[in-house]
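Board notes (copied after class):
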Amino acid sequence: MNLAYYTCFYGNDNNSAYKIPMVPSLTYECYYYTNNSTLLKELSNTNWKGVFIDKPPNNDIKKDCMDGKHIKSMPHEYDNLKTYDYLCYIDSKVDQVNETFVENLIQKYFIENDYALLLREHWYIHNDIWNEYNASMEQPRYEIDREKYRNYIETQIKNGLSERVDQHCACGFIIRNMKHDKIQELNKTWYEHIQQCGIQDQISFFFVKQLFNEFIRPFKEYPYILSVNYNQATYNKKILLATEYCDSGCYIDAITVYESILDYISNADDKYNICWKLYNCYKQIGKEPHGFFYLVEAFKYSKKRVECLYPLLVHYTCSNMYETAYNYYLHVKEFYENHYLTSDLSNLSLIESDKYNFYVPYYIIIIADRLNNHSCGIKMFEIIFIKKQLNIDEFCIKNIFFNLQFFLDHIPETNTNLIKLANEYIQFLYQNNMKSSYEFINTSTYKDYGIDVSKYIV
């Protein structure tokens, strides 16, 4: 099979896209085009064939990215690539390509059929160009040209193209049939649209695909592979890459990295952390409900941790879906009520103490009140009073004391400790200059049960 792979990077050493992915094949030639001399030297120690582009970096991420769009969309104009029957373009940030999968696609859709281009159908942005636009605008590198993208989209719609399609494609993995009589026209048309639209080429391809729809075949399958022996060094490298994406506002790229490694690591704590980070990435791009999947997924990996429980409690409590919220709490209930106060969780990473010590019990108290589950609510008061978490919003503390009145009459006679703990908590608040948090409970409703704040009111 006369096939080659290629990728590219344009920019300086500080560009977050400065990456050398695992070479996709040892059978076929793999070309890496770059105008970065440092990266070119590093390529000499790999199985990539480095090709230097004599064009100085712009030291501007957007301009450098646009420079790379030419080879991405117009490979037929490059001497090293024009002799191949089939070309597979991969984004420099992706994981190792499944070579057999590529060969099978070429056989099925280029040799046995007559398609010109194969791309993966987008796995979570579907059908509507405004879905792609809205997701893209969450990334600073695209948001800066918000009006340009909007004007481009509106122009294409005015020209008769549709804002909805059956299959919207991602453009980080592309297989071309270079023998097809339409491929060069398709390439040139896409590049012209990229120049009109901007560096977010999935927006421009949305419309170009409509012009060449009969020659383009989207596929749904995942085209990459990962080693089952996913060692700690590889994991750390991926996490660092995803962190860099998050820090630069590239949350969609971070999601791609996190999702690619979740199934290939064995440490349960690491898996839990990735679920938590995926939720936060989806929240950042305005797709929090997509992130709920990973919050629930996290229960597989820990029945002790509550970071992923907390957003579910907030969402369903605020939606008056108290039973649903409580059902999610059941995943951690046994540990949280019976062992948390005596457990050492310091060996777990990303522990958020304010969630454990105050905010989770804060919401469970509300849920328990609505469900008349007084024993559960009383246990939550005990956790708050014992843990004495600092730096809590006074509004929330006032709510705790307000809700306490609904549980006082349900304290079992055998529980002689709760009132003592409540008074100790009030003393703690007084010592930390938070008097306004409890002054309003200086009434008989609380005094009749032994909670007296009068000596702490000046």
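Comment from the instructor: The chain has three domains: 3-219, 227-281, 302-456. The CA atoms of residues 374 and 410 lie 7 Å apart.
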